[in-house]
Amino acid sequence: MEIKGCIFDLDGVIVDTAKYHYQSWKRLAKELGFEFDEAVNERLKGISRMDSLNIVLAQGGILVTEEEKETMCYEKNEWYKEYISELDESELLPGVKVFIEGLRAEGVKIGLGSASRNAKTILKGIGIDHLFDVMIDGNDVSKSKPDPEVFLKGAEGLGLAPEHVVVFEDARKGLEAAITAGFIPVGVGSPELLPEADMHIQSFENFSLEEVLSQLDKSA
Ligand code: BG6
Ligand code: MG
């Protein structure tokens, strides 16, 4: 088995922004008069802004019009943009930049596969967008994870078949998408939170693709 490419999710994999999404939803819930907890937040990872809002509203038992939903999404995103306005390299998750640079040096192609419409702005803001051969984000897809569209477009952009591409994901919905389309999935986080994946890493520090290859050999 040869690994020719890697596609990375953004929030919670490359940058530590999952906490800012959480804080923004929490703020919206508070304005609507209910508390929003971390367990529900786990279900929001990897899905679009509107899909997330629907889950938040369901938790609060709140019914609103489509127009009101648009306003709420807008508001949530304004708060989120405030949080990320001063994002810098310190918000990169440990080891990820060095890992990607190492892959590029070995000729492995690099893609982004994120549900976020803010993804390209974030990567440019941090100054690492040049490390990506292709960037697919929430603006480029019509179906959100667990639909594999975002990763399939990424693989197409890299000119690679999914079986040669590793997908790094911190969300269950994202792993489901990668598995459905035949990518090699790696969960970024614990096996308890991410039962879909067979392989997990807690951090990119001291991690190399050799580990993925040896696990694949064992399971073959
Ligand atoms: C995903 C996050 O990457 O992007 C979700 O895991 C988020 O929590 C989604 O809702 C959409 O992001 P944005 O930036 O378009 O609101
Ligand atoms: Mg994520």
CATH fold field value of the largest domain: Rossmann fold
Low-confidence stretches: none
| Secondary structural class | alpha/beta
Q: How can the largest sheet be summarized?
A: 6 strands, parallel
Bound molecules: 6-O-phosphono-beta-D-glucopyranose, magnesium ion
Give the total of beta strands.
Answer: 6
> In the CATH classification, which architecture of the largest domain applies?
3-Layer(aba) Sandwich
Total domain units: 2
Strand order of the largest sheet: 3-2-1-4-5-6
Q: Which CATH class of the largest domain applies here?
A: Alpha Beta
Beta-strand percentage range: 5-15%
Whole-number average pLDDT?
Answer: 95
H/E topology pattern: EHHHHHEHEHEHEEH
Shape: globular
Number of helices: 9
| Rg, alpha carbons | 17 Å
Question: Overview of this structure, please?
Answer:
The structure is a single chain. By secondary structure, this protein is of the alpha/beta class. It folds into 2 domains: 143 residues, 3-Layer(aba) Sandwich (Rossmann fold); 67 residues, DNA polymerase, domain 1 (Orthogonal Bundle). Helices cover 46% and strands 11% of the residues. It is built from 9 helices and 6 strands, in the order E-H-H-H-H-H-E-H-E-H-E-H-E-E-H. It has a 6-stranded parallel β-sheet with strand order 3-2-1-4-5-6. Strand 4, helix 8 and strand 5 form a beta-alpha-beta unit. Helix 1 packs across helix 4, helix 2 runs antiparallel to helix 3 and helix 3 crosses helix 4. The protein is globular and about 50 Å long. It starts with a strand and ends with a helix. 39% of the residues are buried. The model has no long low-confidence stretch (mean pLDDT 95). The structure holds 6-O-phosphono-beta-D-glucopyranose and magnesium ion. The site of magnesium ion has 8 residues, from loops.
